[in-house]
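Example 3.
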Amino acid sequence: MNIFLQQLITGLSIGSVYALLAVGYALIYSIFDFTNFAFGALMMIGTYAAFYSISLVNFPLLGAIIIAMLITAVASILVEILAYRPMREKKASKLYLMITAMGVNIFIQNLAIQTIGGSVKAFPSDWAKQVVNFGIVKMPRSDILAAIISLAMLAILWFFLYKSRLGLGIRASAYDTRTAGLMGLNVNIISLTVFAISGFTAGLSGVFFGMKYAVYPAMGGISNKAFIAAVIGGLGSLPGAVIGGIALGLIETMVSAYVSTTFRDLFSYATLVLILLFLPNGLLGKNIQDKL
Amino acid sequence: MGYAKGILILMSINIVGVCGVIILTGFTGLFSLGHAGFMSIGAYVAAILTKYFGIPFLLSMLIGGLIASLSSLIVGYPTLRGKLKGDYFAIAMMGFAESIRLLFSNIYPYFNGALGLSGIPLKMNLTTSLIICAIVVYFTFRYLNSQHGKLLISIREQEVAAELIGVNVTKEKLKSLLISAFLCGISGGMMAFYYTYMTPNTFSAELSNNMLAAVVFGGMGSISGPVIATIILTALPELLRAVARWRLVIYGLLMIIVMLFRPEGLLGNKEISLYPFIKRIKKEKKVRDVTIKEGK
Amino acid sequence: MKKMKRIISLLLVFILMLSLVACGGEKKDPIKIGFEGWSSGADAYMGQVAIAVLQDYIDNVNANGGWLGRQVELVPYDISKDFSESINATNRLINQDKVTAIIGPDGSPFAIPLGDIVENAQIPLLPYGSNAAVTLNDDGSVKPYVFRACPVDSDSATVLASYVYKEMGVRRVATLIETTNAYCVGMGEAFVKAFTSLGGEIVATESYPVEEIEFRAQLTKLAESKPEYIFMPAAAYKEVGNAAKQLKELGFSDNIKILGTDGWYIPELMGIAGPELEGAHLIIGADMSDPEFADIITDYNKKHGDLDMELHIYALYALNALQFIEHAILEAGSTEGPAIRDALENIKDLEVSTGGKWTLDPKTHNPKGSEFSIVKVTDSQFKTITKYTD
């Protein structure tokens, strides 16, 4: 029983990282209808922003988290303005957007390797390393902090999307971008907001990843799992992304614990294929067919 | 084996694989990062059949290609039916290639798992690889310039419209996936008989990226463009060793820039052929003949 | 359209010119030594540090008059893309750069396909990959021009097994192995074989795929069977860092320690998970904190501090290879491939940068007499406790 509980906690903790990433990814997907493959690279930027603001400037942990979120948001907006928006304005096909995103990912990741080096570093926070003992299960502080801040972030995001005017505009755009534009919504402001929010989530999940594991340029590879999580939840659905992320984390941990560690990822991908076969819109997704 | 010869063989191997991506991504418009998976299947099947069962290497490459082709249905069927968005296909393909890598790493009889399959007979010489490459390019050219090619372009440009005029979109997409996987499988087989050693990690995501890059730089909807791009890209890292550190950075940047400013690729969807030259020469000759006549 | 084509053709001409410039224009023929390493991508530290160390050594040689009165030149190539690159780079080093010998590549998959190429060209190749197939053909015959510049992995795992069984009295070990990596699988097999034949028990076996970050599921399972040590022959140090941290988080780190190999003997690991690895034992070819390395490390840090990459053992293996070549060229008094090859095969008791005196076994082209050091992590530092040979 203890062991099961411990595995459950492990699953939730990795699942929460997937979930946060998947949300940022699903948000962009729901509005712009394309897979932002640059997400992993943005996340990496966030981690390094936090890393350097602690190790060079001696920022407190919370300050570093905020800096990381801001810098990632700026990077996310820059990518949007420099790469994605000109393409959308030219009505380039979605395929081209996906390729651009791939290019951004390759570019940022390798630029980081060449400029700051490929070596792996520890996140410079001793506070986060401490383990809290709950009697039956043990958790590091970083996990608890991640859970609390992620939940807060999701709550704020929900509040923003459902209770504010701009949020309404974003939801309208998600429903039908072109009509929303025709109705007088400033699509540019909406897109900037969405990329900023997506940057916040990428930066935040990057910091948590760095705290939990380590800081290195290739860490963005985990975003592949976030894409799978988003598909399981239903592409473009935000609650779906959260559920998909946590579900994937649990599936992986439980398969590792009770079936096979060697073939764990095979189960993740098989889940993906099975979901596509029997529940093509994911657990919570809608409008899966290409828009006209 | 000389350096130039090695590069030429590598070019032919890459071109065969890229032809597969041309059909799937360039013409049908399906974004995929999983082609290395098909290459892996083709390579392992071909190498095992020849190494352990003594089957002639050309035949085993063919079988490898066919098995790669069949395996593509595992991902193709769930994601291409019912007009699911292309993103599903892209993500599932990524997972497929990773699954193949994981699976082959853990099979020890015949596959030798992560330790890698060594002692594969060296069969790929310059002539064989050039001939295979020429056949594949010719086939791709014929296929894409036939009715099939036009159907595929119609799907890429306007899927719904294509369906309205009666194109069976799912069937055409699946067909191009099958062919594409077959060609990648063949390319994998060629690789096995050239490298003589491989591990499941040989067929990494980077391999898929490189093939995609060739199609992007060469141009969507073009055959000669990506083929030329493959030739340049295969030779380029060799020539530009000096900036080797920055190669991947440049790669990524170039991908963005090409998509931004010349999404139809450096060569666009025009084909390079000798025809315009011939026409010009004929015209010049005619003009010359006329001037000669009039002058006299 | 036309403009684009013109730009491309101009680019090509420019590139061709560049390569011509790179090829021609030497006054006095230097001895060229090729190097193949991963200098870009995620493992860039592997190649970049090695190049720095090799270049320093060569600069020193040149300042003292070179070899056989000729200057020495390092020709480094990056092969980090995939292993087609090691084939191409080798062809290029042989045919265009006309090198005398080649150091590297690191990593068995990169080195294994090169045996035939260097044999035909009669250019010695000194890779430092661990797999047996690097120097041996399928049928057990030796590849005549390939010489391994590092210990064989199975040797160190075997020695470690006998050390933990005989000297530490350990009887229960679990293994945690990356099944997608040849090095890790080879190490795991050798350790299990040696340890069980001594009478020890492998109580549990778990695995993980490449780039794994989350080990808690595996560690929780392993801890159930109460091992004294977990043998984790990882090829990349960040995996060990994460596993150690998670072992501590789960509260098992007091009773279960980690055993390892030179794959993660990288000083940076101590920055990631030093306290968590307290009490871990590993076996390595050479100890970087040994006073005998103090000079080379200080020297390296002074010259290459800006690289932000610490000196690591693989760079020293590359340096070993260079010392082998130096010795062989001086011994043979020639830069002809066959002469160097024969001299390499006859190397006996050569002092190398990693310490110890190496002899090359003509039957396997593996170095013999390499000492192994047993290292214990103490106070977040790798501390050598003893030198050990089976």
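Residues 58 and 72 of chain C are 6 Å apart (CA to CA). Residues 2-23 of chain C form the longest helix (22 residues).
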